[in-house]
Amino acid sequence: MTVREATNTDAESIAGVARVSWKHDYPNILSRDTVEQGVEEWYAPETIATEIDSDDAVVPVAEREGKVVGFAHAVEDELGGTILRVYVAPEHRNEGIGSDLLEHVREELADRGAERVRAMVLAENDPGNEFYRRFGFELDEQSETRIGEETYRENVYVTE
User: Fold this and answer.
1) How far apart are CA 12 and CA 18, in angstroms?
2) Are 119 and 101 in contact (CB under 8 A)?
3) CA gap 16, 11 in Å, rounded
4) Category of 65 on φ-ψ map: left (φ > 0), alpha (ψ -120 to 50) or beta
5) pLDDT tens string 3-42
6) Which of 57, 157, 58, 71 is nearest to 117 (CA)?
7) How many Å apart are CA 86 and CA 105, to the nearest integer?
8) Contact 86, 33 (CB under 8 A)
9) How many CA atoms lie within 13 A of 36 on its CB side?
10) Which of the residues 48, 70, 89, 118 has an alpha carbon 20 to 30 A from that of 99?
11) What's the CATH fold of domain 2-159?
């Protein structure tokens, strides 16, 4: 398995990992329509390509046998850095891929000067919340995020 910075040619693969992850992870949290709206809004190839090209973004992918099986997305911001997402295709979970992506993002943000890193995850996403707690992130606050036409509670974790 290899972790590397994404290129624009990875945009479709990233969208594919997002789509299967959302369908697998959120059936009791998001409706099927909301999943489709969210994936289309957040992971359209042109949106992903813009993020990949952004100087403020960190978008690594994990590859196994030439296929993208996971990705992360973080941004530098006034608070240091914020991890917006870490997704691994369901059939490749529990192989250390999410851990490797998270470590890559944390190292890159630290290299850019971030002393504090936040991570966002839907409040009802129990595995996602546990993932960040396992790596020393502590719940800092709750906010709201909009997906499609609906608003959802989001936990904001922080580590220094």
Assistant:
1) 10
2) no
3) 9
4) left
5) 999 999 999 999 999 999 999 999 889 988 898 899 889 9
6) 157
7) 10
8) no
9) 3
10) 48
11) Aminopeptidase (3.40.630)
**Length of the chain, please?**
160
Rounded to 5 degrees, what angle do the CA atoms 31, 47, 141 make? 60
Cβ neighbours for 64, distance < 8 A, ≥ 6 positions apart: 1, 2, 92, 97
Strand ranges (E), the chain: 2-5, 57-58, 60-64, 67-77, 80-88, 117-122, 138-147, 150-159
For the stretch 38-82, pLDDT in tens is: 988 999 989 999 999 999 999 999 999 999 999 999 999 988 999
Cα–Cα–Cα angle for 91, 73, 101, rounded to 5 degrees: 50
CA gap 43, 35 in Å, rounded: 11
